[in-house]
Design a protein that fits this description.
The chain is built from 17 helices and 15 strands. By secondary structure, the protein is an alpha/beta fold. Helix 12 links the parallel strand 10 and strand 11.
């Protein structure tokens, strides 16, 4: 079987770690059990460009058990867990093309390898797979029935493609599901980002100034966790509504030009480019620690920082020290890439359970209904969102109320007033 991984000898370790993750993914496990019986994806060819983690592995196994022919590649050069890639390729028969730390040429070669079996469904995290299809592999587009997209950055790119009439097949924005962004983005990114920063630096957050750039759901999660560990959190924003919300949540809100002078830690989560740039590096404290938890590494202007530096070295794993002309040091974590996956293991399994349940059910839904879709980006059907929430609550042994007939009638009527 064709695959490209770092070390086949890691397969057994990866197998055990995948089993460990699956224990905390009861919703996806219930879907897997149904898929095994019904085979709703029988014969379907899927190309998946996702972070190659233990949780992703369980998703890939679930799709395979549903009858799909799955090929997997990485959606970020630093997010791959090499033991997981080995286990998927050797134990599960899922061709995987991913090596942690791969260069850009290898990254895109792996995307092309994932497309080699002429997929009918794409699964993306950041839209690089879709972008490659539309730019370099257009001959494969007639085979594509539809796709899914996992993250905010990818949804932004795909909506831009749809608005410009470029997108050639329908895609469901998994990120827009309430059971995804309200939990994965907030609690998953919040915990795993702080985990990555601490693993990389072993620095104390308590008493420090922690600058969070972007107060979307990911930024909210990081701010919440940094504050909970005793940091003095500063928010930077361009959206007045999100900035107002941050103020009401008790955080200090400043322009980055001012926050840059105060911050001990910086974390960007905006989905935009050059959020931290030359004028900010010029005023940062000696020892400032800079990281990113947005999907791409463009949020920090690393070229500008390199141009300002007189020396550059790796002082710890995933920590690069840039020495400036005045003797100050600025530290960049994980090459400016997703710090929660570069230096840690990504989101906890229990929160990815809902995100990947959305992925599995949306692939099934698209396969059944692709003829009814136009070439644009769609939200996750509300019935899928609510079913995942129901299954998650059941797995947590949490019960909720149901409306009485009288309450249902009242909510659907206008006659009853004061």
């Amino acid at each position: 079987m064709e695959f490209d991984i770092k070390d086949q000898g890691l397969a057994e370790k990866g197998k055990l770690r995948i089993e460990w993750a699956a224990q905390s993914m009861p919703v996806l496990r219930s879907i897997q059990e149904r898929f095994r019986k019904e085979k709703p994806l029988d014969g379907l060819r899927i190309a998946a460009c996702l972070h190659v983690t233990t949780e992703t592995a369980f998703l890939a196994q679930t799709l395979r058990d549903g009858g799909a022919n799955v090929r997997l590649c990485a959606s970020n050069p630093l997010s791959t867990q090499d033991d997981v890639a080995a286990s998927l390729s050797l134990h599960d028969g899922i061709p995987t093309f991913a090596i942690k730390g791969e260069d850009k040429e290898t990254y895109y070669r792996h995307i092309h390898a994932a497309l080699a079996h002429k997929p009918q469904i794409t699964m993306d995290d950041g839209a690089d797979l879709v972008g490659t299809l539309h730019s370099d592999r257009r001959e494969l587009l007639p085979e594509i029935l539809g796709g899914t997209e996992e993250t905010t950055t990818g949804v932004i790119r795909l909506r831009s493609m749809a608005e410009k009439g470029i997108l050639q097949y329908p895609i469901i924005a998994v990120n827009d599901a309430d059971t995804k962004h309200l939990f994965d983005n907030r609690y998953g990114t919040g915990q795993s980002t702080i985990d990555g920063i601490i693993r990389a630096t072993n620095r104390l957050l308590a008493g420090s100034y922690f600058v969070v750039s972007g107060y979307g759901w990911c930024g909210r999660g990081v701010a919440m966790r940094a504050s909970g560990m005793g940091a003095k959190v500063i928010i930077t924003e361009v959206d007045p509504l999100r900035a107002l919300e941050a103020v009401m949540d008790g955080y200090q809100v400043l322009p980055m030009a001012d926050a840059a002078k105060l911050g001990d830690f910086f974390c960007t989560l905006t989905g935009d480019m050059h959020v931290l740039r030359k004028e900010h590096f010029e005023v940062m404290k000696n020892g400032a620690i800079v990281s990113n938890s947005g999907h791409f590494n463009v949020e920090i202007d690393l070229d500008a920082l390199e141009g300002m530096a007189v020396a550059r070295r790796e002082i710890r794993d995933f920590v690069e020290e840039f020495t400036l002309k005045d003797g100050r040091h600025i530290y960049v974590l994980g090459e400016g890439r997703l710090i929660n996956l570069a230096a840690a293991e990504g989101h906890p399994s229990s929160v990815m359970d809902m995100s990947f349940a959305n992925q599995a059910l949306c692939v099934e839904y698209m396969f059944r209904n692709y003829k009814a879709f136009d070439k644009t980006v769609y939200r996750v059907p509300i019935e899928i969102d609510k079913e995942i929430a129901r299954l998650k609550l059941a797995s947590m042994q949490v019960q909720i109320d149901t409306l009485t007939p009288e309450q249902q009638k009242y909510l659907h009527s206008w006659e009853m007033g004061t």
